[in-house]
Design a protein that fits this description.
Distance between the termini of chain A: 14 Å
Strand order of the largest sheet of chain A: 14-2-1-18-27
Largest sheet of chain A: 5 strands, parallel
Radius of gyration of chain A: 26 Å
Largest interface: A-B, 129 and 127 residues
Oligomer: homodimer
Number of strands of chain A: 27
Strand content of chain A: 15-25%
């Protein structure tokens, strides 16, 4: 219990505008073999270990999701003998790409089998990767091809309830943005020209600000917002005398009270700002690549863990596979199971740890994919990726980032959390689809209900082996910035059992969180082995 | 001269948030053959013609760029006999994808031969397609695969001169945006809370505005901007207690006077807002597809037109091919040559037309592509597409939107216009490269000058057969909204000679402009033929 984990990521920062340094990446890469041909341990980051030493222990890893497979992969580099026990028949855990042939029985007892056409899929879990996340380095290292993920699109729609005439109207996102930026620019311009901020702005500041606002809000020379080509056109400008028909702006008070700007900050988020990336062919490509590198024989699928215990000389884990009870022992265990499920195992964990695990509250979230035979979003609405946003229960409609101009595609009919997802999770799939299509049609029109070939939905709280989309600590859904006592408790190993997963990171619900947690644990474990 | 062209695009608008309607697209598509097997004319848009009629005229098309090939393609659908005369040895005109093997002698007399590795290229001309542009419909119709174009990236840098301490500093775009939005939110919040705008905002407006500003600016509960995770981190948050090291905000006055927000509105532009698209493998893929559909034997390459005249019964065009003078006659001519070059032809155009052509002033612009053996922008700076922006002469550095995580790639070292491009166009290529690398290294660091394999540059005013990147009318670089007398003059045919090109559209410098112009001319010409 005295082995403290060091935060190795500290060394990876750049003083400039970037995230991980190449030096770190290269050591993360497949390390060259030592001169004697033996595999030498390469720390997952620079400067963490006192010196290289061959792995000389066996490690049982519970869970074949991002944390488990990353840990197994890094330990293999160092020569450790690892075995991954995974209850599902596939790698990736909550990184789940649903495609034709996917079949799943949820905890509501309903079985769905996906019939999407060849090459079509949607990611029911993680679907996008920010540029700063180590996930991209693993894609690179594992040879997983990546492509842009459309996380922002001016041509998508917003549709919100309000006590204005805009309530329930579908408004192009670009128009909402242009009006919001136009009016706040006009207002600030007016306030400064009235001298209302003369105590905080010098005359030079005011002039520079005014120049910015004219551009930012597309203001007239006298400082007013009168609309903007940025809103788009009712009819596209063409040749000759066809100047297009610009769309007229909404009234200022309507725009402000209608809350048209309520989702704009999404696109500024550190982990949501474009460019965002995603693997070609599905996020699960990363985990099949890990599986290939780890060696398929080291991952036992369909192995449902029932017991995890420290013993005087190591760890013992029991599991059921193909209806048979089995047991394995090893020197160490890395438990990457969802914290909400660990307490159900037969275990000898201390009371404080069991209490801490209960503080991790599973979040309700899920998605529904709708396969259309016609890409109406491109053909009718000129939408090539991105998401429509609404305060209806569906929260958002996400458009495909691949198969552009193809014959069909899979639209994510909702991706929502909390109460808005709970409005779906108890429903049958047919009921979910009907509700999703109803809300979607209220935004994108009747075509939303036409040309549907098939669909598939999942709710993570109703999904076996997960029972949650991710966790919040002590009721908070925050992605970090604060270490609750329970969170801190689980950062330390319990004798020879280590915990890892995005829940023990400051990037909860992100693969980056799971990877960095796994890398911390691998580093700590190897430091301990090297010192023993 | 009495045939007025109708603006067919009017019928293509949607009342919702979109551009071209599917109905229009489907008629634009390859029309099914008539029952008798003959090709029936299908108007490029609905409702333009009184009725279908087979094309029964010959048309000479001068120029094999977007306007010329689009016109030839649409006329072929209607059964017209077309011949395209193109001076270059390739289709596409100013749509020029430079790749290994490309060789060009510019009007400075310098010959460059590109040695980029297999699969690498950059578009020296058009490189991106807005979602609303008809260019995407042609990609779809012609089977040209498209992919996202990274036109906005929070991880790129901005670097501007000012009289502040931020002058010449490289600042992550995301940090510039967060600070600008934070401070303008704080300022507007302060002004409204002081009652400075009580005559224009009701109490309900003020409350809604305040709620928006807190979110938009990431303000503290007391309405101040104290920095934001949106700015990014000096060290990325990871697992455990590694909360990351947030970057501290700059001072308000520095941000405002430093002009950090000067380029933010770029990403709101009607024709620049994400998502933007581009063909896989180079923009010229569109024109090779046109060539395939038109039939290569109908396009004469290396045919330099020297004379274009109306005759009593049609048109006569003279050209030089393989050093031989040749002549052709036809019923009609569509001239898509740059307006600045038409007056040099031997011609019998009226004086008013020649005067009008002179009002089209060529714009100075160009690009330089740098092939690196190492993708430092991804590995070191975590930049996956998008552009760094600066007020240095290079104006911007554009990062590749393909070959992600590959071994190398082509960065566009500058794409600039006007005076800033003129600082490059008289230089030799070596001098251009040296200046571009010097300015780039001042922004991205010394690595900018390392690992360079090769490079290629082009200046459109010094490029034969173009002598301009695009044109402005009467000195204005505006993309439309106003029809000058000279512009209007050229919209009408001169007897049997029609003019087409982006210069006769409200989307100057865009392929959409060239296509819509060509479609207008094709429609007008066919209306005339059908009525004759």
């Amino acid at each position: 219990m005295t082995f403290t984990r060091r935060t190795f990521v500290q060394g990876l920062g750049l003083t400039g505008g970037a995230g991980l340094a190449y030096g770190a990446l290269s050591t993360l890469g497949l390390a060259p073999a030592a001169a004697d041909g033996s595999a030498r341990f390469r720390s997952p980051a620079m400067g963490d270990l006192l010196g290289p030493a061959a792995g000389k222990a066996t490690v049982l890893i519970l869970g074949g999701g991002p944390a488990g497979l990353c840990a197994a992969y890094e330990l293999r580099k160092a020569g450790y003998e690892v075995t991954v026990l995974e209850a599902r028949k596939r790698p990736g855990g909550r990184v789940w790409s649903v495609r034709g042939g996917t079949t799943e029985t949820d905890l509501n007892g309903e079985t769905q089998t996906c019939t999407f056409g060849e090459g079509h899929y949607f990611n029911l879990g993680a679907t996008r990767i920010p540029q700063g996340h180590i996930t991209l380095d693993y894609c690179r290292e594992l040879g997983v091809e990546i492509q842009p993920f459309g996380n922002q699109n001016a041509n998508t729609l917003v549709n919100y309830k309000s006590d204005t005439s805009l309530s329930g109207q579908s408004i192009p996102y670009r128009a909402a943005k242009a009006d919001v930026f136009g009016y706040i620019s006009e207002l600030l311009q007016k306030a400064t020209s009235r001298g209302a901020l003369d105590d905080v702005l010098t005359p030079v500041d005011k002039e520079a600000l005014s120049s910015f606002l004219r551009d930012f809000g597309d203001l007239s020379s006298d400082g007013r917002y009168l609309g903007s080509s940025r809103r788009g056109y009712d009819s596209e400008p063409g040749a000759g005398l066809n100047f297009g028909t610009p769309r007229k702006p909404f009234q200022m008070s309507e725009v402000i009270r209608g809350g048209l700007g309520r989702n704009i900050s999404f696109e500024f988020g550190y982990d949501q700002a474009m460019m965002m990336m995603t693997p070609v062919g599905g996020m699960d490509r990363i985990y099949y690549a890990f599986q290939r590198e780890i060696g398929p024989d080291r991952i036992l699928f369909g192995a449902e863990v029932t017991s995890m215990k420290n013993t005087p000389s190591g760890v013992q884990v029991e599991y059921t596979q193909d209806g048979k009870k089995q047991a394995r022992t090893a020197d160490y265990c890395i438990c990457t199971l969802p914290p909400n499920l660990v307490g159900r195992l037969s275990n000898n964990l201390p009371a404080a740890v069991l209490t801490a695990l209960k503080a991790a509250i599973p979040v309700s979230s899920g998605k529904l994919g709708i396969e259309y035979s016609r890409r109406w979003w491109e053909l009718d609405d000129r939408i090539f990726g991105g998401a429509t946003n609404t305060d209806k229960d569906i929260a958002q409609i996400m458009f495909p980032y691949d198969h552009f101009s193809g014959d069909g595609g899979v639209v994510v009919g909702y991706y929502n959390t909390g109460k808005r997802h709970q409005a779906f999770e108890s429903l049958t799939h047919r009921q979910r689809l009907a509700k999703a299509v109803g809300e979607g049609a209220a935004i994108h029109g009747e075509k939303y209900g036409r040309d549907i070939l098939s669909s598939f939905s999942g709710s993570w709280r109703r999904t076996k082996y997960s029972e949650g989309a991710w966790v919040g600590w002590s009721g908070s859904d925050s992605h970090g910035g604060e270490a609750t006592p329970e969170y801190s408790e689980l950062l330390a190993p319990v004798e020879r059992i280590y915990f890892a997963g995005d829940h023990l990171s400051n990037a909860i619900a992100w693969q980056h969180g799971a990877f960095t947690s796994a890398r911390d644990v691998v580093t700590a474990l190897h430091t301990r082995v090297a010192a023993s």
